[in-house]
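FORM 12-B: Structure-to-Sequence Request
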């Protein structure tokens, strides 16, 4: 309890109201959505092979595939329409590199944004001891912005290829029985792509968030302060001043005593105007 009370006493939750902290929280949430929708995907397609010999037909061939989309390792059994024999076939393509790269960036972005938020809230003084903390934060933000763009673009291209490789109409072309015009092949069910489409959307949304946050992180570095001084601009809030108010001597309360503006004595009942003394009216 003592440790929790100490952390609560030094916590600076005002940072979450600033663009820097608020965007970090959004990055944390959107990273979860990105790797959950991609890494947790499981799809299925079904094709039918109606042989001329009805006894050999299979009208519901289920083909399951999932992350990381090594489709060349996904196999299924299809009838040959010859003497009740069947053949084992494999889908084509290996798209694991793009999918795993996308999920890896999502996981590391989630961990960093979570760590950065904790540092902002509970270790604000350590973060602002020198320019090292904001500088590292700025460099990491730039790197993750670039990685989000690359990984999202690569995964979007890979997803397009996965859709083509798992199209039931394309799968029928590798079935030997479907090449015989006496047999009839058809599509029973195609995969659902809403989850993977959502992962691509979240990937590019994460890029927008991280790229937009570059400016807010840059403002906390000494570089921004030095540039403002060189340009002769108006003084700005010091770096790492998350909602802190600058010291202003004129902000003291002047209504409580007479010492706020020097020694001021209470008004006397005798006052002089133009060198003549005015006495109070006895009446």
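FORM 12-B RESPONSE
SEQUENCE OUT:
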């Amino acid at each position: 309890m003592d440790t929790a009370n100490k952390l609560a006493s030094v916590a600076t939750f005002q940072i979450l109201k600033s663009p820097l902290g608020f965007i970090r929280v959004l990055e944390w949430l959107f990273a979860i959505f990105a790797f959950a929708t991609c890494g947790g995907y499981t799809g299925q397609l079904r094709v039918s092979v109606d042989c001329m010999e009805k006894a050999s037909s299979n009208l519901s061939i289920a083909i399951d595939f999932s992350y990381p989309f090594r489709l060349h390792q996904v196999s299924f059994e299809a009838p040959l329409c010859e003497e009740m024999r069947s053949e084992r076939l494999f889908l084509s393509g290996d798209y694991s590199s793009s999918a795993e790269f996308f999920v890896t960036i999502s996981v590391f972005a989630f961990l960093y944004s979570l760590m950065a938020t904790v540092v902002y809230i509970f270790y604000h003084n350590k973060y602002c001891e020198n320019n090292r903390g904001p500088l590292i934060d700025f460099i990491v933000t730039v790197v993750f912005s670039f990685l989000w763009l690359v990984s999202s673009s690569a995964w979007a291209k890979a997803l397009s290829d996965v859709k083509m490789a798992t199209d039931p109409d394309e799968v029928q072309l590798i079935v030997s029985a479907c090449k015989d015009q006496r047999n009839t092949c058809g599509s029973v069910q195609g995969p659902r792509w809403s989850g993977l489409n959502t992962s691509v959307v979240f990937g590019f949304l994460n890029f927008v968030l991280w790229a937009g946050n570059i400016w807010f992180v840059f403002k906390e570095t000494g570089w921004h302060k030095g540039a403002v001084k060189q340009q002769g601009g108006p003084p700005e809030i010091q770096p790492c001043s998350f909602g802190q108010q600058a010291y202003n001597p004129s902000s003291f309360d002047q209504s409580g005593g007479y010492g706020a503006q020097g020694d001021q004595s209470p008004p006397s009942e005798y006052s002089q105007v133009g060198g003549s003394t005015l006495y109070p009216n006895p009446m």
